[in-house]
Amino acid sequence: MGLFLSSARNSEYDASIGNSDSTKRPRISVKYEHQPATIPGLPEEIAVQILARVSRGNHPLLSCVCKAWYHVLSTPEFFNLRKELGVTEEWLYVLMKDEEERLGWRVLDPVEGRWRKLPPMPELSNIAKKTEANEISWGWRLRSGPLRMLRLTSLFGGWFQRKGFLDKIPYCGCSAGAINGSLYVLGGFSWANAMRAVWRYDSRTNRWASSAAMEVARAYCKTGVIDNKLYAIGGVDRGRGGLTPLQSAEVYDPETDSWSQVAPMPFRRARVLPTAFLSDMLKPIATGMASYNGKLCVPQSLYSWPFFVDVGGEIFDPATDTWVEMATGMGNDWPARQAGTKLSAVVGGKLYALDPTSSMDGSKIKVYDSDKDVWKVVLKKVPILLDLSDSESPYLLAGFDGKLHVITKDFNNNVTVLRAELGFNSQSHQAKEFEVGWKTISSASFGAVELVACQVLDL
After folding, report:
1. Minimal CA–CA distance to 186: which of 18, 178, 196, 375?
2. What residues does each domain of the chain span?
3. What is the dihedral of CA 25, 45, 55, 456, to 10 degrees?
4. Span 90-458: which CATH code?
5. Which contiguous run of DSSP H or E holds residue 140?
6. Residue 11: strand, helix, or coil
7. pTM for the structure as a whole
8. How many other C-beta atoms lie within 10 A of the C-beta of residue 280?
9. Which of 334, 341, 347 is nearest to 373 (CA)?
10. Residues of the chain by 3-state class (helix, strand, coil), percent to 5
11. Nearest to 344 by CA among 287, 415, 400, 288
12. pLDDT over 60 (residue 276)
């Protein structure tokens, strides 16, 4: 028992275990019939609270002790208790693509600094193979104009630049989200068709299972979470004329395991192009997403190789199911909008974005000032180099443990997680300047992999 007590991370809660004051937090007891006591000789509530204080990295070992502990550690009530006790841990989940173009998840335990490998995502053998592989179109098709077929590049990365990629890579163009201690993988392409399929990884049981399918098949959609509900916005589908951008949006409720439609994106600014030719050629698409101040902020662009035009963005309010045009400064100056959700993160209620550059000043971190409608530089000389390869995502941005983190891969294939340590400059009475240090949280090699996406789970 001493081992478990030594694992307690908040001793201030010890006194509350036996407190019978009715005004305190109600006791939580996880009890199972026909099972021995969790810890013989101790009341069930105290035993469960002891287990709840053990670091999450040790849970796999605890689950092997006995069936009683296995059942306790796999229940939602157990993790709700950890949240009430204030001992939850935020882990970083990173989706990577190996040399054989296979996708897989790695998870970083920042407490112990260790990486773990998730079970592979389920096979897609139940999805029928299309026989019209030769009819696949690799970009936007135009009904008129001098260019009959245009290829879309930077938005969808290297996958769209290799012939046959849709036939070989399951989950190509999938998106990810995290709610209720579970990781969700949405859509993507399989056998050249966009999918409605949704898979859920339960971190409590370390298993994948299918969830309710989306109402619309989509790939490369943008995801965000508000009020414990997962939103899927935009993306593309494959039609007769090639890849078609989507205006539709939908929301997933984990309590009912169901999807429902919400108001589609109006793309107002994309509809005011000066000529009919440009309207036909340039297709509006959502290029990013951030859940900010209880709303979904979606920067948008017009794409058609070799053209790229910023058109601001729109903001969705779930309370009223309506879209409004994004403030001019926020939309037009959103850094690295082509990277979508990969280089934006909300930490401490503030919206940050990474702005990669090849200049001598190095890459920068910017924060959005809603009062002045401007993006301001808050971190200079981020210790990463501009990646000139065709990597899908050379960098990722994430927020956990209340800090901003940059995930990057160097030329030696080391995946490194850097934490920004910010402090006010004591010599600045206005507290407008920052002393910035970067701390390496982890650095590990997984071979020649590419970074695809990242999520954070708090359990």
Report:
1. 196
2. 2-85, 90-458
3. -50
4. 2.120.10.80
5. strand 140-141
6. helix
7. 0.81
8. 14
9. 334
10. 15, 40, 45
11. 288
12. no
